[in-house]
Every structure is written in structure tokens, then in C-alpha cells.
């Protein structure tokens, strides 16, 4: 069985240092959002991290919950990030349809990333991988723009996390 050429290139970057890889290729990882996609994606990213592929991608493009996964992955904390899905986000504190005014509590989610399962912002911002996340422009909910995390400072990281994780009419923050 032959390995796909892209996978071969990714594996060749195994254990790459934090500096940008200069092999003449540009390899991008795309992570979608949605709580179930994010839970599955967390498992896949934990495997990539375990294989030593945290610095193997030139860029990562995300939307919604895929952004938090990418942040834990690029900071080398994917197992911690993945544990959030089965520990903190599986009960009614996060998703609760009876709380119709805020069925998905984005404030709770952000607080978990901030303190409960504390993301190492130093490691994240030290990553040389270009990390972009999509946010929806209001009032035109059909239009999204991609923002690159390194264009922001650490003090505004959690605002960016909240903005890309929020869904109008589903997970409004406070």
C-alpha cells in the first residue's frame, strides 16, 4: 500500500522544530466547527500531536469550535483540550435546550479554556504556524472573514475565541 504524497510530506515533517519548515511545500490543515465535529477532531489532533506533527503544518484554518482545538494542538496541549469534551462540556452547564435564551453557554466554554483547562497562550503565540479562524460579520450572517491569531495580542485572545465560537441565536454570550 502506497502512502498518499501529502501524507508522506506531513510525516517527513515529524518532530519539526517550531521554526517554519522550508521544504518548498505549503501544507494547510482545515478544522471545521460544530460540537460533534470538534469532539471527533480533538481525537484526530491528539493522534497527530502524539505522532510529533504539531509543527508540521504551515497554516491551520478553522471555524467555530475547531479554533479551540487548533489552539490546544499548536500549544502542545491537545490531550487537555480533548478532555474538555467529555469532562466539562458533556453536562448541562454547556448545552441545555431548556435554557432557551442561551442553549450553548459560550461564556462557560471560554471560562474553561481560560482557567478550567487553561490554554498556554505563551506556547500558542510562540507557534510559527499561521492560525486563522472565521468569524461571521454581523448583520450579514452569510459573510465570514478569516482573522489570523498573530494579528492579535494575548489580551484579546479570549475575545477572539468568543467571537469565532458564538452562533447567533444559539450561543449568545453575555
- Can you count the beta strands? 4
What is the string of helix and strand elements? HEHEHHHHEEH
Which strand order spans the largest sheet, edge to edge or round the barrel?
A: 1-2-3-4
For the sheet with most strands, the description reads: 4 strands, mixed
Average pLDDT confidence is 85
Task: Note the total helix count.
Answer: 7
Description of the structure:
The chain has 174 residues and is of the alpha/beta class. Helices cover 40% and strands 12% of the residues. The protein has helices at residues 5-12, 35-50, 65-74, 78-87, 106-116, 121-126, 157-165, and strands at 28-31, 59-63, 130-136, 144-148. The protein has a 4-stranded mixed sheet with strand order 1-2-3-4, covered by helices on one side. A hairpin with a 7-residue loop joins strand 3 and strand 4 (144-148). The longest helix has 16 residues, at 35-50. The termini are far apart. Residues 169-174 have low confidence and may be disordered.
